[in-house]
Amino acid sequence: MAGTTARRGKGASAFRCSECGWQTAKWVGRCGECQAWGSVAEVGAVTARTTAASTVERPALPIAEVDVTHAVARPTGVAEFDRVLGGGLVPGAVVLVAGEPGIGKSTLLLDVAGRAARSGEHGERRVLYVSGEESAAQVRARAERIEAMARSLYLASETDLATVLGQVEQVQPELLVVDSVQTVASAEVEGSAGNVTQVREVAASLIQVAKARGIAVLLVGHVTKDGSIAGPRVLEHLVDVVVQFEGDRHSRLRLVRAVKNRYGPTDEVGCFDLSDVGIVGLADPSGLFLSGRTAAVAGTCVTVTLEGRRPLVTEVQALVTASSLATPRRATSGLDSARVNMVLAVLDKRARAPIGSSDAYLSTVGGVRLAEPAADLAITLALAGAITDRPLPEGTVAFGEVGLAGEVRPVTGAHRRLAEAARLGFTRAVVPAGVLGAGPVPDGLSVLEVGTVAEAVGRALHEVPAR
Predict the structure, then answer these.
(1) Residues of the chain above pLDDT 70, percent
(2) What's the pLDDT score for residue 3?
(3) Helix (H), strand (E), coil (C) string for the chain
(4) Rounded to the nearest 5 degrees, what angle is found at the Cα of 446, between the Cα atoms of 437 and 368?
(5) What local confidence, expressed as pLDDT, does residue 463 receive?
(6) Which one, of 93, 287, 260, lies nearest residue 174 by Cα?
(7) Which of these ranges, 34-48, 207-221, 380-394, has the smallest mean pLDDT?
(8) Fewer CB within 10 A of the end CB, N or C, for the chain?
(9) 146 pLDDT more than 50
(10) CA 220 to CA 98: how far, in whole Å?
């Protein structure tokens, strides 16, 4: 760097990355430090600047005198979406909804816009839906199909930021939906729509309008091929809520998760059914994650996970077969591959399972993704059943975290999991040791406590538990 500075002539230009601050003597299209595209720009000589104090129009108040009524969430009319947001939309909040193309983001937000327009205190709320990807006629056709028509729902097809702000000035909405932030561009900033500078400018302008006018804003965001939100990382820091739309495009099930939420929890999940007539919330989706077969099959195990306050019953399936490769194959769908590999290693070392020269395939039912460590025990028992070709007794569920020492650790919310299992008709539960002493067990449910992986495999596949 010193050599670069020495070779730079007096008055020569410098270039700096707006994302990470990396400097170079010449312009490059991609930052050499953070690898961001289009973030390197020319800067002048570094000079010290001072800002004079201005007149305060709104003096600071003691925290006890701050009015909290402006931060009360208002329901959107879509219960599953409100669950994820923490009760609804807060006036002035900016929500970024991200997901893969065609997964249902526009359909969900149009449904939210239509319901919000019909759920005002006096019968109506003004809602402005701005589409930069479709014409107003296309949006109306979808609104008719999903029954999202409302008199106070205004549509506009715009891609210019100044025109969008003019529409907001004219309509004076309480809710603004922009689909999508990558399609809107500002004439004051160089570059095409969707680049780093444009996305930052568009988001900053919409956030400023939302805070100044108390308008709730829903922004649709694209994702890259690896699943991350497209655009600068600062976009996620600027908004108040980041919502991730998940699901298999070949399945009707859609899951909505809050990755960031300044007004509520980030561990809640909303479940939706996407069909030809729109998107419908699923208040009780547990049955979607079970195979529905009537006979016990080796290599399957049902577990109960907690998504926020909601217990979900999910089935894990495993298939173990002899490998013809020098390195056995490990394939997963809906499960964390790192945790599956860990469970395979624990089975091999602690339970003496003959898994080293076999291919292993694991999947969840219904397209759901399990990331909670409580699913470790179900993965273990599914693999053990596939290796021994011995099915678990019918009506069995299992949950617990597996450690590298082969121990089965307790998990939070054990009795909520047991209550959900009993509600769905399960009669046998394999759980970590200590659950029975922490509270009552639901009627009709027999509990088998295990302390190690070897004990869990040996007793779950052979022993009938005593209540």
Answers:
(1) 93
(2) 43
(3) CHHHHHHCCCCCCEEEECCCCCEECCCCCECCCCCCECCEEEECCCCCCCCCCCCCCCCCCCHHHCCCHHHCCECCCCHHHHHHHCCCECCCCEEEEEECCCCCHHHHHHHHHHHHHCCCCCCCCCEEEEECCCCHHHHHHHHHHCCCCCCCEEEECCCEHHHHHHHHHHHCCCEEEEECCCCCECCCCCCCCCCHHHHHHHHHHHHHHHHHHCCEEEEEECECCCCCECCCCHHHHHCCEEEEEECCCCCCEEEEEEEEECCCCCCCEEEEEEECCEEEECCCCHHHHCCCCCCCCCCEEEEEEEECCEEEEEEEEEEEEECCCCCCCEEEECECHHHHHHHHHHHHHHCCCCCCCEEEEEEECCCCCECCHHHHHHHHHHHHHHHHCCCCCCCEEECCEECCCCEEECCCCHHHHHHHHHHCCCCEEEEECCCHHHCCCCCCCEEEEECEHHHHHHHHCCCCCCC
(4) 95
(5) 60
(6) 93
(7) 34-48
(8) N
(9) yes
(10) 6
Mean pLDDT of 304-326: 91
Residues comprising the binding site for ATP? 99-106
Phi, psi of 46, deg, nearest 5: -75, 120
- Which residues belong to the annotated binding site? 99-106
Quick one: tokens of 445? 């449910």
Instruction: Specify whether the CB–CB gap between 260 and 253 falls below 8 A.
Output: no
Exposed/middle/buried for 283, CB within 10 Å: 0-12, 13-18, 19+? exposed
Where residue 123 falls among pLDDT bands split at 50, 70, 90?
low
pLDDT in tens, 177-203: 999 899 999 998 888 888 888 999 999
Say which amino acid occupies 246: E
What tokens were used for 411? 């998990």
Report the candidate in 335, 338, 272, 284 with the shortest Cα–Cα distance to residue 311: 284
Q: Which tokens is 41 given?
A: 């720009």
pLDDT of residue 80: 92
Residue 462: both structure tokens together: 């052979």
Query: Hey, which of 9-23, 161-175, 307-321 has the most confident mean pLDDT?
Result: 161-175
CA distance 105 to 454: 45
Structure tokens at 305: 């996970």
Instruction: Confirm whether pTM is higher than 0.85.
Output: no
Instruction: Judge contact between 296 and 394, C-beta under 8 A.
Output: yes
What are 402's strand-pairing partners?
408
Say how far apart CA 361 and CA 382 lie, in whole Å.
11
Polymer length in residues for the chain: 467
Backbone phi, psi, residue 145, to 5°: -70, -40
